[in-house]
Amino acid sequence: MAGAKWSVIASAVLGAATVVWGQTPSVVKARMVLATSAAHPGAPAKAAVVAEIIPGYHINDHKPTLDYLIPTEVVFDPSKEISAERVDYPKGQLVKFTFADESLSVYEGTLAVGVVLKVAPIAAGGDYTLKGKLRYQACNDHACLPPANVPVELTVKVVSASVRLKPENADVFSKIKFE
């Protein structure tokens, strides 16, 4: 009887471990927004990647405190019409964790990364999609998850230079320092 009881317990533990090892929780959700209602051909446009990090987790700064830490990075697939010309990362906040001797620069909560887009002069009026990904490694106070990617995508409406652009997403762009 005792052997059967231990067999059931062992099966339950191994089954739970398989579920934990086989799945990585979705710690970061990301989206992209544009600073204006549209963009003009041949002109730069400001965009942002807005990432929400669930409470209890952090991701490393783009320039992590220690060399072996995996940086947060935004990368894009360029197209003929729209590409990312520059990515401006905010400075992380220094946080002391029990597992490290020194404070680490990390992002927690909401992260807004500025992106300067280059719209090609040859871009005709219409909608163009820029695709990319946010690369990061999420950690809590006890362990780090495997590095992960979150896909991001932005549809940019390109309009004639004579069309006035309207500001949008001021709440996001007021927090971003473009270099």
Sketch the major β-sheet. 4 strands, antiparallel
Q: Please report the distance between the alpha carbons of the first and last residues.
A: 70 Å
Reported CATH architecture: Sandwich
Instruction: Give the neighbour order of strands across the main sheet.
Output: 1-2-8-5
Q: Unreliable segments (pLDDT under 50, ≥5 consecutive)? A: 1-23
What sort of overall outline do the alpha carbons produce when their principal axes are compared? elongated
Give the percentage of residues in beta strands: 35-45%
Give average pLDDT, whole number: 88
Q: What percent of residues adopt helix (DSSP H or I)?
A: 10-25%
Figure out the total of helices: 2
Question: From N to C, what is the helix and strand string?
Answer: HEEEEEEEEEEEH
The first-level CATH class name = Mainly Beta
Radius of gyration: 21 Å
Structure description:
The chain has 179 residues and is mainly beta. The chain has a single domain, classed as Immunoglobulin-like, CATH 2.60.40.1250. 14% of the residues lie in helices and 41% in strands. The longest helix has 21 residues. It is elongated, with a radius of gyration of 21 Å.
List the helices and strands and how they pair.
Blueprint: H1 2-22, E1 28-34, E2 44-53, E3 58-60, E4 73-77, E5 82-88, E6 93-95, E7 104-107, E8 110-119, E9 126-136, E10 138-139, E11 148-158, H2 170-173
Antiparallel strand pairs: 1-2, 2-8, 3-7, 3-10, 4-9, 5-8, 6-7, 9-11
